[in-house]
């Protein structure tokens, strides 16, 4: 028994010494984070990791120790070092294994930056703005926007959360699989796919699989992450279609000289479909909700003025206030507001003036980056698109805009998302005023999922009122 107690004491002493001798033990943070990451894991299971980290940054500053082997940063220098050094930044952690599709690594779930770069080369040209702005792609997005407007102007109160996710799904599926993309705004069978991809709650189940991989094969069925059989069937069918449009994503991925087989192409497309519906659908929902508040009517009216006075032939990138409204929405409500974890490379690195050993998990989260630089974003909790119209400080604001991450591993689909958002907002606010519906009872707080976020109650009821300048 004495030997056992001696062993326990020695083990505890070793853990204690290792914790206190680590370079990151000297970084700011709660005392308990020198010894355990349980508090961080607990916040993850409660879906409050983002708020937990943000509160620590508000208390301790731009560098915070989260666990014995994890540190969070908010500075521009840290963002550049972690995500853009060497072009693609540091390698991803195993957390991204959760985002495999059909058990296959996609570009998003590839951990090392070399493998990611190889995969990105296979599809980067499809997400180039020149390809997205092709007439056929734009026509498809505009058709979906008109279908959305038609749905939302039929009755006095409309749950736009539903139809914005349809719009996002139709946009990304037509971009990938044209001419066989989905029409969930108009076809009930396609609407069912939107519901399958949107209405779920599997954060805790995914985290159990991540933290307990050895036990995962023995979990009962109610602990299994969500399944999406209709989406799987659709993606497999599309990956094997015979004559897709030459500028679609699937054409690029299954071309004769492609290094991807059909299953890998299908996995990549399913990943892009899920990402597209979350980022565009939820981003638009948060933005339209904010624009519909009484406090934001000035901004909505200013947006309408620009859209009304702009010729239909004007390119989308020549509407500065439309761009400002979207960027401010994404600043306050980034579709992925939480951390992007990375491993410090071999040999360790100096980040924000502090040496961090190799293998340490480091990250920045857009939610905090966009709120804690009050010298760059004054009154940061306030929705204010006008801040993006000021020349003074614009370069610094753009450098700290982190909604799509940055570097070689930043969001590949950002161009598509921005075009979809601009076209939808143009279709709505050139003609209509939106207001919160009297029967809106749902909570629109940011609700964290496994990596993205969404409105907490997944409902957003608005009223569309046609403006007199249009109807007269």
Descriptive overview:
This protein is an alpha+beta fold and 472 residues long. The chain is built from 19 helices and eleven strands. The strands form four sheets. It has a four-stranded mixed β-sheet, sandwiched between helices. The protein has a three-stranded antiparallel β-sheet with strand order 3-11-8. A two-stranded antiparallel sheet has the order 5-6. Helix 7 packs antiparallel against helix 8 (160-177), helix 11 (229-239) crosses helix 13 (262-291) and helix 13 (262-291) runs parallel beside helix 18. The protein is globular and about 85 Å long.
List the helices and strands and how they pair.
Blueprint: H1 2-21, H2 38-45, H3 49-60, E1 63-67, E2 70-73, H4 76-84, H5 113-123, H6 129-132, H7 135-152, E3 158-159, H8 160-177, H9 188-198, H10 203-211, H11 229-239, H12 249-253, H13 262-291, H14 297-308, H15 320-332, E4 342-343, E5 349-351, E6 354-356, E7 361-364, H16 366-369, H17 394-400, H18 414-429, E8 432-436, E9 446-448, E10 453-455, E11 461-466, H19 468-471
Parallel strand pairs: 2-7
Antiparallel strand pairs: 1-2, 3-11, 4-7, 5-6, 8-11, 9-10
């Amino acid at each position: 028994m004495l030997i056992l107690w001696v062993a326990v004491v020695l083990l505890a002493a070793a853990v204690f010494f290792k914790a206190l001798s680590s370079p990151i033990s000297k970084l700011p943070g709660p005392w308990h984070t020198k010894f355990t990451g349980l508090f961080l894991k607990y916040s993850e299971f409660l879906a409050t990791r983002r708020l937990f980290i943000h509160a620590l940054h508000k208390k301790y500053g731009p560098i915070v120790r989260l666990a014995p082997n994890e540190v969070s940063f908010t500075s521009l220098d840290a963002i550049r070092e972690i995500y853009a050094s060497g072009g693609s930044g540091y390698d991803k952690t195993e957390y991204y294994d959760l985002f495999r599709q059909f058990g296959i690594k996609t570009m998003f779930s590839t951990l090392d930056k070399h493998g990611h770069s190889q995969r990105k080369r296979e599809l980067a040209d499809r997400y180039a703005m020149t390809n997205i702005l092709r007439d056929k792609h734009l026509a498809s997005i505009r058709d979906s926007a008109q279908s959305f407007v038609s749905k939302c102007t039929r009755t006095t109160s409309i749950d736009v959360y539903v139809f914005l996710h349809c719009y996002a799904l139709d946009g990304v599926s037509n971009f990938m699989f044209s001419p066989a993309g989905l029409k969930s705004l108009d076809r009930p069978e396609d609407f069912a796919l939107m519901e399958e991809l949107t209405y779920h709650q599997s954060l805790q189940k995914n985290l159990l699989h991540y933290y307990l991989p050895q036990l995962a094969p023995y979990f009962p069925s109610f602990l299994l992450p969500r399944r999406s059989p209709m989406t799987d069937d659709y993606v497999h069918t599309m990956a094997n279609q015979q004559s897709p449009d030459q500028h679609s994503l699937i054409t690029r991925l299954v071309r004769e000289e492609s290094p991807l087989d059909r299953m890998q192409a299908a996995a990549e497309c399913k990943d892009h479909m899920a990402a597209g519906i979350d980022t565009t659908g939820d981003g638009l929902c948060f933005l339209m909700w904010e624009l519909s508040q009484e406090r934001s009517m000035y901004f909505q009216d200013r947006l309408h003025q620009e859209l009304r006075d702009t010729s239909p032939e004007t390119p989308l990138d020549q509407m500065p206030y439309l761009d400002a409204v979207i960027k401010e929405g994404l600043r306050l409500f980034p579709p992925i507001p939480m951390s992007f974890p990375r491993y410090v490379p071999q040999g360790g690195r100096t980040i924000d003036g502090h040496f961090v050993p190799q293998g340490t998990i480091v990250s920045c989260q857009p939610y905090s980056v966009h709120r804690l630089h009050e010298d760059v974003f004054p009154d940061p909790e306030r929705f204010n698109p006008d801040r993006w119209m000021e020349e003074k400080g614009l370069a610094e604001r753009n450098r700290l805009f982190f909604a799509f991450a940055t570097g070689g591993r930043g969001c590949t689909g950002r161009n598509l998302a921005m075009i979809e958002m601009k076209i939808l907002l143009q279709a709505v606010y050139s003609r209509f005023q939106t207001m919160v519906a009297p029967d809106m009872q749902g909570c629109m707080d940011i609700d964290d999922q496994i990596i993205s976020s969404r409105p907490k109650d997944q409902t957003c009821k608005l009223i569309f009122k046609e403006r007199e300048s249009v109807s007269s």
